[in-house]
Write a structure and sequence with these properties.
alpha/beta; 8-stranded mixed β-barrel; 13 helices; about 50% helix; binds ligand C2E; binds magnesium ion
Length: about 280
């Protein structure tokens, strides 16, 4: 399995111009410099509460504003950062940014639950839960305003260790979410043992919601499953009003997608929220 993973990392690295091992090393160096030079940037995508029609949360999504290559999406460097272990330097930086931004919004009277994505390596690292506690304590942010998203596949690398980390995180009061649900292979027996609050249905099911009766049924039953387990259900990748209307009628709790807003720089969120409020008022 390790060999397969290495190969996958190698293939992805070559996609962004880092092929042979010495080029991979230079990419790690470049990422380290990028962190120092503040080239990484956190974008935020609003999450809409379907019952109230209000935005109550956002997901933090990483971007690399590369000086010559422009804005690089996470799919082009996060997998490589995971392969090489560099993600261990990115995640603490990201969480610090997210907690500070969420606390600053709170100070302005904007209370959002903000989600950040974790990788497998983060879950296997015993320092994660203490780090989260420190960040919350020093910022004064109520733990319930931070949500951590974990994919099924990240959990399955070492389910027992992942569960231990999740339990520690849950004790600190942060919210936990299963990301890309339905795309991985975690068993229901395992999932029901997790101290999670939210289930995010994988966007592949949402994309074909209106065209495929099977996908519509999968979404409907996943909403029912989530609710039966006491979880908030989020649909990701809702692009059209028709999809948003369908999801609302189906009892889905929260939606996120281009149909509401694309991910945007943190500095644009309050302005976007104000426009949204005046639209709702009209
Ligand atoms: P994810 O956590 O499942 O995030 C959702 C992705 O779907 C985001 O892509 C978002 O921009 C995109 N998306 C949202 N709504 C729509 C829609 O309506 N249509 C379409 N076509 N796409 C939509 P993004 O930002 O490129 O991130 C991709 C993945 O990279 C994320 O998937 C997550 O797994 C990973 N990622 C992003 N930021 C971080 C990070 O800070 N740390 C880690 N470990 N992973 C991250
Ligand atoms: Mg996510
Ligand atoms: Mg997802
Ligand atoms: Mg669609």
């Amino acid at each position: 399995r390790e060999a397969k993973r290495q190969f996958r990392g190698y293939a992805l690295a070559s996609e962004i111009g880092a092929g042979p091992p010495h080029e991979q090393l230079s990419l790690i160096g470049e990422m380290r410099d990028a962190l120092l030079r503040q080239e990484f940037e956190v974008f935020y995508q609003p999450k809409l509460d379907l019952a109230s029609g209000r935005v109550t949360g956002a997901e933090a999504l990483l971007r690399w504003r590369h000086p010559s290559r422009g804005l690089i999406p996470p799919a082009q460097f996060i997998p490589f950062a995971e392969q090489t272990g560099f993600i261990r330097e990115i995640t603490p930086w990201l969480l610090d940014q997210v907690v500070a931004r969420t606390a600053a919004w709170r100070a302005q009277g904007l209370n959002l639950v903000v989600s950040a994505n974790l990788s497998t390596l983060d879950l296997l690292h015993s320092g994660l839960a203490p780090l989260v506690k420190r960040l919350l304590a020093s910022s004064g942010l109520p733990p319930g305003q931070l949500c951590l998203e974990i994919t099924e596949s990240a959990l399955m690398d070492d389910p027992d260790l992942a569960l231990a980390t999740l339990n520690q995180l849950a004790e600190s009061g942060v919210r936990l979410s299963i990301d890309d649900y339905g795309a991985g292979h975690a068993s229901l027996a395992y999932l029901k043992s997790l101290p999670v609050h939210e289930l995010k249905i994988d966007q592949a099911f949402i994309f074909s919601l209106m065209e495929s009766g099977k996908d519509a049924e999968i979404v409907r039953s996943t909403i029912a499953l989530g609710h039966a387990l006491g979880l908030k259900v989020v649909a990701e990748g809702a692009e059209t009003d028709a999809e948003l209307g369908w999801l609302k009628r189906a009892g889905c709790d929260v939606a996120q997608g281009y149909g509401i807003a694309r991910p945007m720089p943190g500095a644009e969120v309050t302005g976007w929220m104000a426009d949204q409020d005046s639209a709702v008022a009209r």
